[in-house]
Amino acid sequence: MIETNKIGRYQFMAEPFHCDFTKHLLFGHLGNYMLNAADFHSHDRGFGMPYLNPIHKTWVLSRLAIEMTEYPTQYKKFFVDTWIESAVRYFTNRNFKIEGEDGTVYGYGKSVWAMIDTQTRQPQNILEIHGGKIIDYIETDKECPIEKSSRVKMSSDAQLIMTLDTHYNDVDVNGHINSVKYIEHVLDLFPLSQYENFLLKRFEIAYVAESHFGDKLNFYLEKSGEEEYCIRITKLEEKIENEVETCRCKVKFVKD
Amino acid sequence: MIETNKIGRYQFMAEPFHCDFTKHLLFGHLGNYMLNAADFHSHDRGFGMPYLNPIHKTWVLSRLAIEMTEYPTQYKKFFVDTWIESAVRYFTNRNFKIEGEDGTVYGYGKSVWAMIDTQTRQPQNILEIHGGKIIDYIETDKECPIEKSSRVKMSSDAQLIMTLDTHYNDVDVNGHINSVKYIEHVLDLFPLSQYENFLLKRFEIAYVAESHFGDKLNFYLEKSGEEEYCIRITKLEEKIENEVETCRCKVKFVKD
Fold first, then answer.
1. I want to staple A83 with a disulfide (CB 3.0 to 4.6 A). Which of A139, A178, B67, B193 is the partner?
2. Distance CA B78, CA A111 (A)
3. CA of A248, closest CA in chain B: separation in Å?
4. A73 to chain B: nearest residue by CA?
5. Are the C-beta atoms of residues B243 and B191 closer than 8 Å to each other?
């Protein structure tokens, strides 16, 4: 049954083993729930991976920005609402709202997705799927009052602060490093005291190139404002000397 | 409402972002779902963390053995059944069965839990909670046809093969390294080809001592049979020279 509602609403729970030492939902798991909601939403409307994969196409997350006012505490149930704000030839903009059962608004998200051919890795025209049916699902009235991802600017002052080998658990169903794992690795750059004293207010990430199992990841960090940090992640493939940028992030903390 | 059924049944889904490159549920996430089921089961019967924590008590996972015949593929829904096989003064034995919607038996688990005082860290008499009510939930008829955890024997031949810093995302609500993270780190010791060619048949882990954020973890590995490996994890706390064992695991792969 194809869903006709434009907005998808999915319930999740801040599982205790997915919470941090402050007993709030870990940001990486929140990101994971949002990607799940996106996946369910597109699947329920005929644009999901189970439809796309057999025709050699897949969604690729290009940008993601999440801004939170507060985080669900352990055992709290919450909803992730998601909808498509716009769709052009090669990109769709998908929004998120994270809301408690009691109406508490925890935060919002904005994301950009491309569709690619899994064999040629070339961008695919989204409007050619089901005769452009995605247009029927565009929702422009629902508010998502956070800024879009911006271009994260970094200077040559950024310092290499961590080098990481990638492992089995980093790899997703497509054989690439899992989108959420980058987020977790970036948040692992900060000491526990950062999370004791500050709230992670906003996280944005732009995915530039895919990395694979066995690649070494380098993390470069630059302070760009008060409790605001920009991070560049590069990969070093085996037997290849050139460092290639895989993603770029901006993280903003505020006093808790 | 207190649940009177002895066996708890909880449904989960092999979420696509929790699957590996073979499109099967990652073992760490399976372990996480099982711990969730245990948590829900004890909570539904009045022995959960939300009841125990205010009276300064908590469950501590002491041993876990999981044996699988196959793993759910992405998007598959499955059930985790869990029940208490026995309870004595300081320990309960909790079993698990992992079953598909169509009745496919994916595997089983056996675990041992202690209850401790969160302030003194001393073992607590489980039979003193709710006047020994846990005895009413003991289920001895349901089958769990796998071997219990054994004492994992290791010689001095075990080789140090990885040293790891612990980070924010490794830490659980109690401030300790998350039980599932040890499992993931152990599975990350093996190359991708191991998972291409073999099925992870059995995993057992005994938790010996807690480790904390900032500890360095050393992983020692010894081959103990055909595609069978024993792993000892030790911690090195900051400014302390002595290496202390935190857990011991045994991993058995079979030809897929």
1. A139
2. 30
3. 20
4. B173
5. no
pLDDT in tens, chain B (256 residues): 788 899 999 999 999 999 999 999 999 999 999 999 999 999 999 999 989 999 999 999 999 999 999 999 999 999 999 999 999 999 999 999 999 999 999 999 999 999 999 999 999 999 999 999 999 999 999 999 999 988 999 998 999 999 999 999 999 998 899 999 999 999 999 999 999 999 999 999 999 999 999 999 999 999 999 999 999 999 999 888 899 999 999 999 999 8
Residue B77: count of CB within 10 angstroms of its CB = 12
Dihedral sign of CA atoms A17, B180, A162, B188 in order: negative
Beta-sheet strands, E only, within chain B: 8-13, 57-68, 77-87, 91-100, 105-117, 159-165, 198-207, 216-225, 228-236, 244-255
- CA of B20: how far to CAs of A105, A163, B181, B187, B250, in Å? 33, 23, 16, 12, 21
Return d(Cα A102, Cα A107) in angstroms, integer.
14
Q: How far is the C-alpha of A218 from the C-alpha of A35, rounded, in Å?
A: 25
Contacts of residue B2, Cβ cutoff 8 Å, sequence gap at least 6: B44, B45, B46
Task: Tell me the ipTM for this assembly.
Answer: 0.92
A205: Cβ–Cβ under 8 A, 6 or more apart, which residues? A63, A64, A65, A149, A179, A182, A183, A186, A247, A248, A249
- Name the residue facing B192 among A16, A75, A171 (closest C-beta): A171
Among left, alpha and beta (phi > 0; psi -120 to 50; other), residue A23 is left
Phi-psi region of A36 (alpha: psi -120 to 50; beta: other; left: phi over 0): alpha
**DSSP β-ladder status, B228-236 and B244-255:** antiparallel
Q: Which residues of B touch A200 (CB under 8 A)?
A: none
Report the C-alpha gap between B21 and B17 in whole angstroms: 10
Q: Residue B27 pairs with which residues in a beta bridge?
A: none
CA–CA dist B35, B8 (Å, integer): 13
Q: How far apart, in whole angstroms, are the C-alpha atoms of residue A21 and residue A23? A: 5
What is the b/e burial string over A14-36, where b = at least 16 CB atoms within 10 angstroms of the residue's CB? Answer: bbbbbbbbbbbbbbbbbbbbbbb
- The count of residues in chain A is 256
B14: chain A residues, CB-CB within 8 Å: none
Q: B192 vs A180: CB contact, 8 Å cut-off?
A: no
In terms of phi and psi (left: phi > 0; alpha: psi -120 to 50; beta: otherwise), the region of A95 is beta
Encode A163-176: b = buried (16+ Cβ within 10 Å), e = exposed. eeebbbbbbbbbeb
Q: Does B156 touch chain A (CB under 8 A)?
A: no
CB-based contact B204:B150 (threshold 8 Å): yes
